[in-house]
Amino acid sequence: MDVIDQAIEDIRASGYAVVEDFLTQTQLEVATRAMAEIEANSSFGRENFGGTRTKRSSNLLGQTRGFDDIVTDDRMLRIVEGVLGPAFQISIVAMIKIFPGESPQPLHQDDGLWPAPRPHQPFVLNTMLALDEFRADNGGTNLVPGSHKSLDPVDQEAERVMVSMPRGSLLAWDGACWHGGGASIGDTERCGLNINYNVGWLRQQENQFVSIPQDVIPTLSERMQRLLGYQHHGILGLSGGQDPLEVLRGRAQGAGQDARL
Ligand SMILES: O=C(O)CCC(=O)C(=O)O
Description:
By secondary structure, the protein is α+β, with helices and mostly antiparallel strands. Helix content is 25%, strand content 18%. The protein has one domain (3-204): Sandwich (Jelly Rolls). The termini are far apart. The structure holds 2-oxoglutaric acid.
């Protein structure tokens, strides 16, 4: 069993998995540069859930191409498919950078955004790429092992793991697993690239059709276009009975665009 199959098994059994050395050196360097620009335009949050010593920025795919290679990475998509099945898409891509002085975020489930009774099949798979080392004292994500199977809310004081992982690692968890950003009691920051996927028949958390400028869509790889939601599952998502990507390609040709569409 390779590390990816192991991660899929761990997520199914415990709700989460860590894969060290996940990012290639190039992915790490490109993402770090892109994130520095994103961070320069972001500021601290103003409410407790998101954190007042945490900088966040969402719609990263509308801001930079620096994360495309990670979002579409074969190993990443193998994990997503292993948990969600073959039909999935990007839900949201965000920066979460926790600074010294942050208090622990309340434990929560990210799939609670969709009002579905439990138990249900996994429909959200979340990931956090460590662009800095994550530790128990600098905001490393807290997770309650096995809580993705819990039908009731977990105690906010529940025993948890505080993820420690070197820069370049991947943390992936079932959206049903109770978790939260950790407290930062040391003197170092922790920047995470947060890429969440959900099943293709669910509404995306972030509206990718509006978030990515329309003139950018034709320049993206077909894999990225499909992950953004230009895909269909059976008859779900067709446009006039046609594959949405074919519709876009037809439009682009009509407009004389020289692009991949
Ligand atoms: O930053 C983290 O480690 C987790 C953050 C999180 O769960 C959230 O903001 O919903």
